[in-house]
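sry for the spam today, last one i promise. struct tokens for design, 650 residues
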């Protein structure tokens, strides 16, 4: 029997039972003297234990039962009140003293519940703050091992209770954007007021994932929230499920994985189905899909309403044609039937794409569309599995899990699609919110991003930093040595980690300058330089880190292999120009525009950090030699980044 389902009826049943037995007892005891209102008053006294004479009721079982039930009712009520308090107190002390690196999730709304289930299934310690004590998901999540704190997320005592000082990540995933924003504001204020950065010594800065449904809200938050983050209390990362899903699809099934070795071939993909995830996937390609020796990636957009989507996308991102070639193709029917009504060119080109990606809002529609497109390709090429199909399921019905997770035929459908038909499925929520995606891959990307930022900081900021903080007058030669130390680090160490790199760098800098290590660690660590960045700069480094696989493919294609300093300098113009194009695309997506910088440093900072003006959003050949060097630097760092990435897989 499910106690939680019975619990709401216990109190009413006990109360009614007390009245029934008491009335029966008094009627038998008093006979004609029975008075309903007097009896009613006496019964009410039972509940405050105002009548406990055992002699009076010893001969009347009905009154004895009534008094016992009243006592049980009072005792049960007191127990319930104290149990709730003691339970919360127990969880509070358990979290404070035995939890570390746990995940805190605010709410059990559908997205939050999905995240909690994925993380609990992967073995993570998860604490959920849910304001609604009657939320039907509480019992299910508790059975999976989650700790539920039923309290307001806006109260200080709640934030004290959940162990923010030792948490790994906070995830704000209410359905309403405004609620998530308000909780983020509360946590950030709490972090400042109670110096959370000091309490978290030995831990990374608290990472806050905030789900935002409206992309315009994400843009505003990333552009203007925490423009100059110099306090290091937290790292706020706003995301939408559609954006994370698009990034998951790109990282797992990037177009370059399906290009053939010929350097002069046309590179093209088809995107079938236009929705918000499609929009984000297009942005991923605009920022990341750039290849030396190849023309811009061709993207065939196929949908019954493609004209509307195409024009809306161009309205929002009018610069997109500078980086990819979008070709709208109107889908005439759901089954790719009677395709003779299309132009012959479209039929031929769609049949020759390197990969096809499917998006939509219905599992069954997306699966059926992918099957119909496979039929279309076979009719054109007689190849059953040559072109890979990547299908993103919105998980609106659970039909894929029904087909694939049957105990008698577990994984048979997925394996058949993958091996026989070259069809790969990505579940928009389950795969995106898995522990591997949300925690492990995210942390690996951030580690690479921090090292990239540190390298550029050493190259272009440490001269000023050493002069201002440590009175090092002329550090130009020292900076060259520090840059060389980082670039050659993987050649001198068999095991490369972020922590080891930082420790060895601080030791090297201390030896070179005579400055105490502890003093250097206050200003010169990898995480210190990272925590000073605003949201947009962090995202910029993350894109650079996620672009590594594309760079590796590109360098192999043009013959710049193996990756070493000599090869990179040999192919310098081709590599640097393509990185500048990628960087420019990223900045345009981030709402930057071109404009010259004034001489005044403060005005320059306002233009760059607030107004989103940048003076290097120009063609590569118009850059100065120093500016061109910045595009080359990332390639010189690649041996170290490859070593870091390789070690993380061990």
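last one done:
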């Amino acid at each position: 029997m499910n106690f939680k389902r019975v619990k709401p009826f216990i109190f009413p049943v006990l109360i009614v039972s007390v009245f029934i037995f008491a009335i029966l007892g008094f009627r038998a005891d008093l006979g004609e003297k029975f008075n309903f209102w007097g009896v009613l008053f006496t019964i009410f006294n039972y509940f405050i234990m105002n009548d406990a004479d055992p002699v009076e009721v010893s001969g009347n079982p009905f009154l004895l039962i009534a008094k016992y039930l009243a006592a049980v009712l009072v005792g049960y009520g007191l127990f319930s009140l104290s149990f709730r308090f003691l339970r919360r107190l127990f969880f509070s002390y358990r979290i404070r003293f035995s939890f570390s690196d746990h995940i805190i999730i605010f709410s059990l709304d559908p997205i939050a519940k999905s995240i909690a289930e994925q993380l609990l299934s992967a073995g993570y310690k998860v604490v959920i703050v849910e304001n609604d004590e009657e939320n039907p998901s509480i019992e299910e999540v508790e059975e999976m091992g989650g700790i539920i704190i039923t309290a307001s997320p806006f109260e200080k005592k709640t934030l004290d209770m959940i162990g923010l000082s030792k948490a790994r990540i906070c995830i704000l995933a209410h359905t309403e954007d405004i609620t998530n924003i308000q909780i983020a504001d509360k946590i950030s204020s709490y972090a400042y007021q109670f110096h959370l950065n000091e309490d978290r010594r030995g831990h990374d800065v608290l990472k806050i994932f905030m789900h935002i449904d409206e992309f315009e809200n994400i843009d505003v938050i990333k552009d203007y929230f925490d423009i100059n983050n110099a306090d290091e209390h937290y790292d706020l990362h706003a995301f939408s499920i559609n954006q994370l899903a698009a990034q998951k699809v790109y990282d797992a099934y990037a177009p370059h994985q399906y290009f053939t070795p010929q350097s002069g071939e046309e590179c093209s993909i088809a995107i079938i189905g236009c929705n918000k995830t499609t929009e984000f996937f297009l942005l991923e390609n605009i920022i990341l899909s750039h290849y030396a020796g190849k023309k811009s990636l061709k993207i065939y957009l196929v949908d019954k309403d493609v004209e509307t989507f195409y024009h809306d996308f161009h309205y929002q991102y009018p610069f997109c044609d500078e980086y990819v070639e979008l070709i709208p193709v109107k889908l005439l029917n759901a089954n790719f039937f009677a395709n003779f009504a299309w132009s012959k060119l479209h039929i031929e080109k769609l049949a020759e794409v390197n990969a096809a990606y499917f998006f939509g809002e219905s599992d069954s529609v997306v699966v059926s569309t992918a099957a119909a497109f496979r039929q279309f390709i076979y009719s054109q090429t007689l190849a059953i599995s040559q072109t890979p199909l990547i299908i993103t399921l919105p998980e609106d019905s659970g039909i894929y899990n029904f087909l694939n997770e049957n105990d008698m035929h577990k994984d048979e459908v997925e394996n058949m699609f993958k091996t026989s038909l070259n069809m790969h499925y990505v579940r928009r929520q389950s795969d995106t919110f898995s522990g591997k995606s949300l925690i492990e891959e995210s942390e690996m990307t951030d580690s690479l991003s921090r090292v990239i930022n540190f390298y550029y900081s050493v190259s272009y900021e440490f001269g000023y930093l050493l002069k201002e903080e440590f009175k090092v007058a002329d550090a130009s030669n020292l900076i060259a040595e520090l840059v060389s130390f980082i670039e050659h680090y993987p050649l001198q160490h068999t095991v490369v980690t972020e922590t080891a790199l930082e420790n060895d760098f601080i030791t090297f800098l201390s030896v070179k300058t005579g400055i105490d290590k502890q003093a250097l660690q206050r200003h010169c660590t990898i995480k210190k330089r990272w925590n000073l960045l605003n949201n947009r700069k962090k995202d910029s480094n993350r894109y650079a880190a996620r672009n590594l696989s594309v760079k590796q493919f590109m360098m192999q294609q043009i013959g710049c292999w193996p990756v070493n300093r000599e090869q990179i300098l040999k192919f310098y113009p081709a590599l640097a120009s393509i990185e500048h194009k990628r960087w420019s695309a990223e900045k345009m997506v981030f709402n930057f525009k071109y404009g010259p910088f004034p001489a005044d440093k403060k005005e320059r900072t306002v233009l760059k950090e607030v107004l989103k003006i940048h003076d290097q959003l120009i063609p590569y050949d118009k850059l100065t030699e120093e500016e061109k060097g910045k595009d080359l630097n990332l390639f010189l760092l690649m041996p170290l980044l490859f070593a870091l990435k390789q070690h993380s897989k061990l």
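The chain is about 55% helix and 10% strand. ok im logging off now
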